[in-house]
Amino acid sequence: MSFVTLKEILRGTRENGYAVGAFNFNSYEDVQGIINGAVAKNAPVIVMASMGAVKYIGLKATAYMVRGIAESAEIPVCLHLDHATDLDLIRKCIDVGFTSVMIDASMKSYEENIQETASIVAYAKKMGCSVEAELGRVGGREEEVIVDEASAAFTNPEDVPDFVKRTGIDALAIAFGTAHGFYKKEPKLDYERIAAIAEITEIPLVMHGGTGVSEEGFRKAIRNGISKVNVGTELKATYVSAIRDVTAKNPGEGDPRKYMCSVKQDCSEVVQRKIDIFGCAGRG
């Protein structure tokens, strides 16, 4: 298998009671660890680049790097642009071969959100690319996107059918109590809101702010209708921790591959644990 779209990789998730993990990466080593973890579990996987990651790695380098790794992996791999607010960058990612993009116009008015999202959908469909959008506002910080607790607004189920119809999106990120980054206290998630939205639309629903949610919290969200779960902060912390561990145990180590092997292995293990929780093992 090689690249597939978000629409393809999420097909059948709700009907079969599982979700596909979507994992943020920042370099070659963690994206390889993510895909290795999915291969070990024979699971489909979504690898996500933030706007910051694309700028850091390079636009073409990001797309070609992931495509190269994916082509040797016999599982479905979706390359997704996460939480993008720059319309020009979104179009460039579509042009260079991303199979999915997320436009985040959730900080704008409802009508502006629809207008900007619909414009990206029209552009993406010409290139066979899927589009995710956000309705409501997920709290916390996702690099350039910052939503404080007071500004975080839960998704109104009544708005969903109209938003989906007028935008033509392939997946919808909803706000129901999660937040980006590490939680300062146990989140209170509105599972009934997920179920209410799933009841009125067939569009795959996306959970952002997955780091720190309990195993049962994930499973309950998936049972109620979540099809895609984003995990970013935990992998970033794992990456840094792996390098620190090697440095502490072997302060004289001069081979960079010894550091980066630990990054790949530790990230792979995180992904495998999440895949078991999300129920998508064996579905590759």
What's the end-to-end separation, in Å? 9 Å
Numbering strands along the chain, what is their spatial order in the largest sheet? 1-2-3-4-5-8-10-11
Helical content band = 40-55%
Number of strands: 11
Main β-sheet: number of strands, strand sense, barrel status? 8 strands, parallel, barrel
Count every helix, treating DSSP H or I runs of 4 or more residues as helices: 12
Under the CATH scheme, the architecture is Alpha-Beta Barrel
Textual characterization of the structure:
The chain is an alpha/beta fold and 284 residues long. Helix content is 48%, strand content 18%. The strands form two sheets. An eight-stranded parallel barrel has the order 1-2-3-4-5-8-10-11, surrounded by nine helices. Strands 7-6-9 form a three-stranded mixed sheet, with no helix packed on it. Helix 6 (87-96) runs parallel beside helix 7. The longest helix has 23 residues, at 256-278. The radius of gyration is 18 Å and the shape is globular. The mean pLDDT is 90.
